[in-house]
Amino acid sequence: MSWLGLVAGLAGAVLFGLGAVAQASGVRRRAQRPDDLLDFVRFAVRDPWTMGVVAAYLAGFVLHAVAIWLLPLYLAQAVTAMSFPVTAVASTLVGERLGPAGWGAVTVVTAGLVLLGVGSGEPGGLVTSGAFVALVWAGVAALALLALVGRRLGRGALAGGVLGTLAGLGYAGSAVAVRGIGTPLDLAVVAAALAVPAYSLVAFWLYSLGLHSDEVSATTAPMIVGQTFVPALVGVLLLGDGVRDGWGAAVAAGLVLATAGAAWLAAPRRRAEQDGRPGIRTAGAAATASSPGPARRPGPGPRRSP
């Protein structure tokens, strides 16, 4: 196991975790749900806050790419799952508190990562074949089609689960595509490199849709599960990622613990919401009994007839 890759992955996870909360804060300032991708892009490039989030994600992605190159994909993605505990802690900034069950989930995630770190073997090599690139871009097309369906299904109680899952598939695709980037540069390497921002753009949009409609943890949990499990399976089954002799069961248990703990972190929010605490409020949300709207500005009262 490469300690440089592990440190880079953890540093990237911190940036991803803080960026998720900043992204939630930014997207909720919009009264209108960003259902159209092009409209969302036009808004994002003109909004300094959103561009700051993108800059944090780009820095995190560079560190994540280092982890992908130096670690097996299952370990690199599980380390990235540590962004969720960071998000859970930082989500107090947008009015979401982490309860005792949530801290228990953080412990479970950490235990899973320890097992993954101890049991990890050598990473597989880079894959720069034409078949790999074709499969990567087929995944981009499939994600785009699923996004069109998901933005309609991802409303109400289904918003966080549906949109977070699809965002996780997008980030999983970008992680797999990174394994096709290397030297010397050729057409296949360039095509794999271009797939990374294609996956990431759609995933970022879907994640923003989920954050606009649901809580940070409810959207992030399924995203973490998707972006951890899918690359892990691809890495071990297709890309030659290794496991230490005799540690296969420990690695499998660690992967399950890390992802299950991340998913568990969504549960305290749901229970709190059922206990009557306020839900998500956006800039244009209507007032409710449990979440009153902003105070009316003072002004002239109704005119009376003489």
Mean pLDDT: 80
Total helices: the number is: 12
Could you tell me the radius of gyration in angstroms? 21 Å
**What is the string of helix and strand elements?**
HHHHHHHHHHHH
Terminal Cα separation, in Å?
Answer: 85 Å
Give the biggest sheet.
none
Backbone structural class: mainly alpha
The domain count comes to: 1
Q: What percentage of amino acids are in beta strands?
A: under 5%
Low-confidence stretches: 273-306
Tell me the helix content: 55-70%
User: Got a strand count?
Assistant: 0
The general outline is: globular
Explain how this protein is built.
It contains twelve helices and no strands. It has one domain. It has helices at 3-27, 37-46, 48-70, 73-80, 83-90, 100-119, 130-153, 159-178, 187-213, 216-238, 248-264, 267-274.
